[in-house]
Amino acid sequence: ASVTSFGQPDWRTAFTPDRIAIETLSGETVREKYDPRTLFANHTMNTPWDPLHRAYFNGYAMWTYLTTPFFMVMPGFEVSEIPPLQEGNELWHGLRVRFPEHVASHSKEQDFYFGDDLLLRRHDYHVDVSGGFPAAQYVYDFIEIEGLRFPTKRRAYLRGPNLEPVKDLLLVSIDLSNFRFS
Questions:
Q1: Does domain 68-182 match CATH 2.50.20.10?
Q2: Is the pTM of this model over 0.85?
């Protein structure tokens, strides 16, 4: 996964589970770290992040977000049905996914809730790189590109008791646009 631009107009990230790098668009390495998960040793929810922390988080998070639900049928992923979640007037169907050790993501076990139209509505996980606090992420405003539907908005909140989001504690706000395949 890669994010362009990152920090500077001519910089991008280069993410793999074993390495994170900030590079120029011509491929020169600005900063890098092998075994990047170790950057987060002893972190808590309020530990400050530097650009490599953000680059690693962006890399694994965007890979997870943009490949949901397709990664769930890849070798090594374990998927099971969980009880549905009532959200307002809607009942969302749940899947619990256990990630294989070689895949970097928020946590090894994550819950995904889908509407009757089979589109993702909510994604629950623990943010292991920041002390393991629970998060509830809502996804919405879907668009269709080449027959595939993607959410353009994601809002992650601290998750409190009984799976309830703490709406006063917005953790992440992501707006996606200009989708294209290459």
A1: yes
A2: yes
**What is the C-alpha to C-alpha distance for residues 16 and 103, in angstroms, rounded to an integer?**
9
Q: What is the pLDDT of residues 76-127, one digit of tens each?
A: 999 999 999 999 999 999 999 999 999 999 999 999 999 999 999 999 999 9
CA 94 to each of CA 20, 79, 118, 150: distance values in angstroms, whole numbers, following the listed order? 32, 10, 11, 19
Joined tokens for residue 72: 């769930």
Taking the C-alpha atoms of residue 80 and residue 97, their distance in angstroms, rounded to an integer, is 7
At residue 126, the pLDDT reads 97
- With a cut of 70, which residues of the chain have pLDDT below it? none
